[in-house]
Amino acid sequence: MTGKKRTILLLISLVLLLVLCVSCSWLFETEKTETAITDNKEFYNEDSLSGIKEMYITVPEPKESDSRYNFTLEQLNSNIVDPFAKHDPEIKVIFQEGFNGSIQKDNYGYGLSDYNATMKLRGQSARLADLESYKIRLNSKAPWGKYVTVNLNKHPYDDLRIRNKLAFELIKDISDITSVSTQFVHLYIKDFSEGDYSTPYVDYGLFTHVENIDTRYLENHGLDKNGHLYKCENFEFKRYEDVLRNVNDDEYDENDFEDILEIKGVNDHRKLIEMLDAVNNEYNHINDVIATYFNRDNFITWLALNVITDNVDTQSRNYYLYSPTDSTTWYFIPWDYDKSLGAYSDTRPIWQKGISNLWGNTLVRRFLRNTDNRAELDAKMVELGNKISQDKLEYYSELFKPIATRFLTTEPDNIPPALDIDAINEEFELLKGSIQKNLEAYYTSLERPMPVFLYPPHLNGNFMEFDWSQSYDFQDDPIYYHFQVSGSPLFTDILYEDDMLLNNELIIRKFPPGHYYYRIYSRDSHGNTTDAFDIYYDDKTETYCFGVNDFYVN
Fold it and tell me: pTM (2 decimals)?
């Protein structure tokens, strides 16, 4: 064979080899490369740790012709909601910033005599409190510093009123997740809405301004402002087929959709639905689902963060889901930590302490059933415990303590059951040790069986059929169900009991007509117990009864 022919054959072989490699490249594909979420730390440069902004709001007299905003301040604060109205009550206001008790020439809004903003109540449970929180919207062409939306949070369920800001200051130092900008605010309101123009400014006390999470937030934090963004309102990663539909579906209802997920970004839900289909398909390995649809580090950080701060109110809400354009990856953005770091009462069901608090979340539940995933979560818990050290908690506690003490011991924030000086000092001491306490609660929760959901009983002739979801034990210990029926929600009398049930169902004889209550405890072979998810509120005794469901026999 001549050298020329040899060269030609070699070239042909190389081309064929190249084609073969390209056509079979799927054999060598790696997992999708995840892009870590990084925060724009420079955005926080203007945040003050111990400074307090002064804000002044004037409420003009509403015009009858302007029905959308035809409310007085008293009506707004009364939280009167018309179920047939398209919008929550809202009023027009003059929003200004001041300094040392007055609005000065270089302050925002100086000299304004006409409204420049609208104001309404904000929050869900917060709006039921005596001291209200407010959402203020400014003209996008005249923002207050970096903000068009100003969230003034009273945090009535945090005895110290400083935990939300403290938590977001801590989150700023944590990788793989974003925080929000916060400022303490001293608010004054002058109310002309009743027609009395002699009304002076009234001191409304201490609030925390928390940056609004919207498309502007995405842009300010170096994220994709054109991406998908949802605020979780009643969402546990179930499929919700009847409600979570795409906009082109004939049965799509935006109001129903937003009862579960509030739409803050792109109004196209195909990517969300695809992800939920995958999460809820038990044939998909959970780690493949996470590799395809989530950033693993971000998800585990969010999960560990909520547990180690004991941020209880995140089972189905108080977080955002974000996905950039042209990406299948979803990221968790934390939100609302006023019930964290020891703010939540210890009088609560067992399952609300530790990881079991999030067991109702489908994504979390599937993730935790994998032993390797739990080990990774363990490591992240230790890592966050080191980052949110007791030294750091003591630093912020000493910084914020004078602010809390100043406002909690004077009007209007000292209304009962406000803390006195001794109680404030004690609460701050407990706060300093909260991370270690929460870490211990996490390890304890791993030893307990996971909670179950109780289902309404069924009548079948002279028998009643009870059933409930299955519990789960991370150590694969045998699980027994302790079943009780009572005529009292406090279970002062036991009408039926079985404490050694192996199956999650029971058939017993029908009770005489009346109102009854039943509860379930899941117990492993080592005696570790957990009550059910259900909570019954007894109006007569004004008591929350944990793990209890009621039923009637006619």
Answer: 0.90
